[in-house]
UniProtKB/TrEMBL annotation:
Signal peptide: none annotated. It comes from Microbulbifer thermotolerans. This is Glycosyltransferase. It is found in: Membrane. Its main location: membrane. The chain crosses the membrane at residues 247-268, 280-306. One of its GO terms (cellular component) is plasma membrane. CDD domains: DPM1_like_bac (cd04187).
């Protein structure tokens, strides 16, 4: 894993690199982040780890502030910037997917707009790519910059997912590098409920991890309030695990066993004792109990049916409103086709 990073032998040539950045209401931080990303990209090109046609893809996820205006200005000014605008807010995972699907480069890195994951770590990821990794996971080595609540819930979540049989990389979110073939494989997944960190684990290919310390957000506030975090966590469970369904079966079995005992007790009371009319509690308690268990079960099954419904509809995940700088990437595409004909 880490030892790949400094090894001398390269298995691949320097790739054209795409850095994909989903942005939602990021006007406070966008210019600084772009400047930093451009600086990092130019450095990578200079030291021969990425080719000069590398690009940064900014995806505006239906922001309500000035994010798109800023993106347009940067895309106008800077050759290496491609700006993509979604028609409305579709959430981080969809925005990221939209950006990934627009790239044509050989290695693709996804990173949050606040650069909390540290753009300088892209170099180490590229080292792993050059050594032959198709998937490089950015893994947080510690969570000091998180609140106690976030740290506790996030780490607890990874543990629960592991228990539910969902294959995730511990403390890896959406900071990762994918090779072109890994990305092409990922783009074949048709599901509408995206949980990219789980889907990437399904790809296979050679993978490795890069550890880094996550910084705190320099400006603006988190676009992941508790509600969105819970929704992402729930998507991860329902999209990747049927353990809750199995738990319902077990719960149903336990409830049946309990009811059976109650039935025996009621019958025994009726047949062998003088208390011919059982008390209201012995009727009401099992009634309430079974009623509530059934409701709970129906609720969870309903969640899955809701997901099935979403998938069966096969609606497009998003519609792209505008793509700027496409002539730049188009030019690369033509060049690439010519190269493969050779
Ligand atoms: N984001 C997005 N669409 C949304 C919410 C967030 O594209 O609906 C982007 C956001 O601009 C950022 C990334 O997702 O680039 C992660 O968000 P944030 O940094 O606020 O999350 P946190 O670091 O607090 O988990
Ligand atoms: Mg962040």
């Amino acid at each position: 894993m880490k030892e790949h990073a400094s090894a001398a032998a390269r298995f691949r040539n320097a790739p054209s690199l795409a850095i994909v950045v989903p942005c939602y209401n990021e006007e406070e931080i966008l210019l600084d982040s772009c400047a930093e990303l451009i600086r990092q990209l130019q450095r990578l090109i200079r030291i021969g780890k990425a080719t000069a046609d590398s690009k940064i893809y900014l995806v505006d996820d239906g922001s309500r502030d000035n994010t798109w205006e800023l993106m347009r200005e940067i895309a106008d000014r800077e050759d290496s910037i491609v700006a993509v605008k979604l028609s409305r807010n579709r959430g981080h995972q969809n925005a990221l997917h939209a950006g990934l699907s627009q790239t044509i480069e050989e290695a693709v890195v996804s990173i949050d707009a606040d650069l909390q994951d540290g753009a300088e770590n892209i170099e180490t990821m590229l080292d792993h790519y050059l050594q032959g990794s198709d998937v490089v996971y950015g893994v947080r080595s510690e969570r000091h910059t998180d609140t106690f609540f976030k740290r506790f819930t996030a780490e607890g979540y990874y543990k629960v997912m592991h228990k539910l049989g969902v294959d995730l990389v511990f403390n890896h979110a959406d900071f990762r590098l994918l090779s072109r073939r890994a990305l092409n494989a990922l783009l074949q997944y048709p599901e509408a409920n995206l949980f990219l960190r789980g889907m990437v684990r399904q790809l296979g290919f050679r993978s490795s991890q890069v550890e880094y310390r996550r910084l705190s957000r320099a400006a603006g506030e988190s676009k992941y309030p508790l509600r969105r975090m819970l929704s992402l966590a729930w998507s991860g469970i329902t999209a990747f695990s049927s353990a809750p369904l199995r738990a319902i079966t077990l719960l149903g079995l336990a409830a049946s066993a309990f009811s059976f005992i109650v039935i025996v007790w009621v019958l025994a009371t009726r047949l062998f004792t003088a208390n011919a009319v059982p008390g209201w509690a012995s009727i009401l308690l099992p009634l309430l109990f079974i009623g509530s268990v059934q409701l709970l079960c129906l609720g969870v099954i309903g969640e899955y049916i809701a997901k099935l419904f979403e998938e069966v509809k096969q609606r497009p995940r998003y519609h792209i409103d505008t793509v700027l700088g496409v002539e730049k990437s188009g030019a690369i595409k033509q060049k690439k086709v010519a190269a493969t004909v050779d």
